[in-house]
Amino acid sequence: DQQVKQNSPSLSVQEGRISILNCDYTNSMFDYFLWYKKYPAEGPTFLISISSIKDKNEDGRFTVFLNKSAKHLSLHIVPSQPGDSAVYFCAAAGTYKYIFGTGTRLKVLA
Amino acid sequence: KAGVTQTPRYLIKTRGQQVTLSCSPISGHRSVSWYQQTPGQGLQFLFEYFSETQRNKGNFPGRFSGRQFSNSRSEMNVSTLELGDSALYLCASSETSRSQETQYFGPGTRLLVL
Hints:
Radius of gyration of chain A: 13 Å
Oligomer: heterodimer
Structural class of chain A: mainly beta
Order of helices and strands of chain A: EEEEEEEEEEE
Number of helices of chain A: 0
Radius of gyration of chain B: 13 Å
Strand content of chain B: over 45%
Number of strands of chain B: 11
Shape of chain B: globular
Largest sheet of chain A: 6 strands, mixed
């Protein structure tokens, strides 16, 4: 039973445009959500997080939105840059330390 | 501060052998978690240690075990290796065991079981 889902395995976006990565979860007890970026042969790098008491958190080009009623979060990257090309994982804090989605591979085209 | 370090970075073993992976957390971090990443499965939680005690355990067989030392360094052991254990094993550390806390990951150990 996949409690955290990233339904788009891949996404391609033109440089300078907005990238929107989506994540859905099923457990309403999750109270902390994070996004990580991962390059091949490296560990995930923390990008941004959001507590369930908020609906938006911004850090530079990255903004995370949380819709608790829909059990949905999204990561917006504006503007997208070629260096953003990587696999993005969302994670939710639950009984286990984190539960991760299966990732979305973002490709930013120059 | 130095980041999370993992050794070795790459490992090749044969079926039936056992393996021990090591993780040194960020200085001051007392919680260490281990994850397994395989293609198509994302990152799956193995276990978490805090102050030398296992706090949480994921849904993995007993062949997977771990421990944490008084300096917060952690080791993970897999006995009787199977082909399906081939994966990237990631270690992450955080200051405490609270769920609302960011974990920082090491580069991982890539294990290949032949």
